[in-house]
Write a structure and sequence with these properties.
- The protein is of the alpha+beta class.
- The protein folds into 2 domains: about 90 residues, D-amino Acid Aminotransferase, Chain A, domain 1 (2-Layer Sandwich); about 140 residues, D-amino Acid Aminotransferase, subunit A, domain 2 (D-amino Acid Aminotransferase, Chain A, domain 2, Alpha-Beta Barrel), CATH 3.20.10.10.
- It is built from 7 helices and 13 strands.
- The strands form 2 sheets. Strands 5, 6, 7, 8, 9, 10, 11, 12 and 13 form a 9-stranded mixed beta sheet that branches.
- The longest helix is centred in the first third of the chain and has 15 residues.
- The radius of gyration is 18 Å and the shape is globular.
- It catalyses: L-leucine + 2-oxoglutarate = 4-methyl-2-oxopentanoate + L-glutamate; L-valine + 2-oxoglutarate = 3-methyl-2-oxobutanoate + L-glutamate; L-isoleucine + 2-oxoglutarate = (S)-3-methyl-2-oxopentanoate + L-glutamate.
- InterPro entries: Aminotrans_IV (IPR001544), Aminotrans_IV_CS (IPR018300), Aminotransferase-like (IPR036038), BCAT-like_C (IPR043132), BCAT-like_N (IPR043131), Class-IV_PLP-Dep_Aminotrnsfr (IPR050571).
- It comes from Mariniradius saccharolyticus AK6.
Length: about 250
Amino acid sequence: MAINRGFLFGDGIFETMVLKNQKIRFSDFHKSRVEEGCCVLGLESSTLSTLEEIEEAVLKMASCNQPLRIRWNVFRAGLGKYTPETDRIGENLLIQSFHPAVSIKQHAYVSKAYFVPQTPWSHFKTLNALPYVLANRQRKQLGKDEVILLNSDGYISEAGAANIFWEKTGRFYTPSLECSCIAGVGRNAILNHFQKNSIPLAEGKFKPEELMNADRVFVSNVTGISYIQEIDGNRFDISRIDQLDQLFH
């Protein structure tokens, strides 16, 4: 891979996408988020590839009928030092086999070592992902299946690579974007489903104690939904919610 500002400074954003049946799943959500991310970082998005162009390029490079995982990196062009030489963009793609989210994650914990900071770009997947890298490194060392991250104010933010939801007596909850979480594509699909079907949902600021009192907990990203069996000794219902699972098929 050529040296670029994404590699040198984390100066850019990325999208993780699923190509299935020759189409990118949730393409409208990806398009909206990457364009908004470019705006926040001051990147000129006028030459940004379209999702249709990416689909065409991937199908030329990978003649495969199986679903694929695509990482679309968008970074500031040029080199320079901290001060950019330009706001034009560069792009590249990483194509991998797709693996859906595991159905159940047995053991999770709330990290007391790593937190998600609040920044103007908190909602986007930036090329500087150190909080997630270090949190998941610790999770692996501890032999856990999932890590729950708080923001710097101690409110629940998200999981190690996914957004988090929970259910209590028929009502669903998820952290608001004010809690530094990624504006996940899977999260948007679930929120739209709740709104269209008048399913009660509260977005807000929640302390870990509220999560521990839930009936059911699940995490989601573009690969699907995983249900959490236990967090720090608290056990939850792991029966699946078919209507939500179908959003990712």
